[in-house]
Design brief:
This protein is an alpha+beta fold. The strands form three sheets. It has a three-stranded antiparallel beta sheet. It has a two-stranded antiparallel sheet with strand order 1-2. A hairpin with a 2-residue loop joins β3 and β4. α2 crosses α8 and α8 crosses α10. The mean pLDDT is about 90. The protein has ten helices and seven strands. Among the domains are: about 60 residues, no CATH class; about 40 residues, no CATH class. Bound molecules: zinc ion. The site of zinc ion has 8 residues, from loops.
């Protein structure tokens, strides 16, 4: 079994893109993270911070360290374009391979809970009624005294503590609006950000295949077997 992580390359990006199109965003996140993980590693059971580390690793390897992001100021509506370095978004203190556990006493019950994993997020449809509670209940390992159904207040107590249990579970941008001076934190969905890059990469490649297949009668496999530099030459020659 190889321990060398795979990378996103011309040879596999079309397959990854096609597989990702078929699933919901949470499945795409796992698909992409698995590309950067050593083979045999079950990425679904990693805490979210470790998933984020893998996504950033893949992003850096395939598209570089700079992540362009856009956000609207919640105060004045100004659109901010910022570029962050992947290194700045890497979780510090998180990223462990096992979901950490902790205990909280809330409304007379002692609740043992663990950090969220990709499998939890994948299992819950975010549009379903009570999705947040369903997700939080998945983190609860033990309740003392036992309770059939935990009240929402207890689940919210757990929710407030999840960020401490897994720093880096959410990638956060600290933003300042140059127009009105408002400062705020914006969550960055790393998987969706990376998916946009993957999608763009796949589309560029497909357009190249299309143009060269039409110009020279080559098959998709023919075009993809040509190096990007030579392909660029043929593309220019065919339109010149
Ligand atoms: Zn503003």
């Amino acid at each position: 079994m190889s321990l060398v992580p795979r990378q996103l390359t011309e040879a596999n990006v079309l397959d990854v893109w096609e597989s990702g199109l078929a699933g919901p965003p949470a499945a795409r996140s796992l698909l992409l993270a698995s590309m950067a993980a050593p083979s045999g590693c079950s990425v679904a059971d990693l805490p979210l911070s470790a998933l984020n580390s893998l996504l950033l690793e893949l992003r850096r390897g395939a598209f570089g360290d700079a992540l362009p992001c856009a956000a609207d100021c919640p105060e004045c509506g100004e659109c901010l374009d910022v570029t962050v370095a992947a290194g700045e978004l890497l979780p510090s203190g998180g990223g462990g391979a096992v979901a950490a556990t902790a205990t909280v006493t809330s409304y007379g019950r002692t609740v043992t809970y663990r950090a969220l994993t990709g499998r939890d997020v994948r299992a819950v449809d975010p549009a379903a009624p009570g999705a947040r509670q369903t997700l939080l209940r998945r983190c609860v390992l033990r309740v003392d005294p036992p309770a059939h159904d935990l009240p929402d207040e207890v689940l919210e107590d757990v929710a407030r503590r999840l960020a401490d249990l897994d720093p880096g579970a959410d990638a956060v941008l600290t933003l300042d609006c140059p127009q009105c001076g408002h400062g705020w934190d914006a969550a960055l969905d790393l998987a969706e950000h990376l998916w946009t890059d993957v999608s763009g990469y796949a589309h560029r490649l497909l357009h190249e295949v299309h143009a060269l297949a039409r110009a020279y009668g080559w098959t998709e496999a023919d075009v993809l077997s040509i190096s990007p530099t030579r392909r660029q030459f043929y593309l220019e020659a065919s339109t010149g």
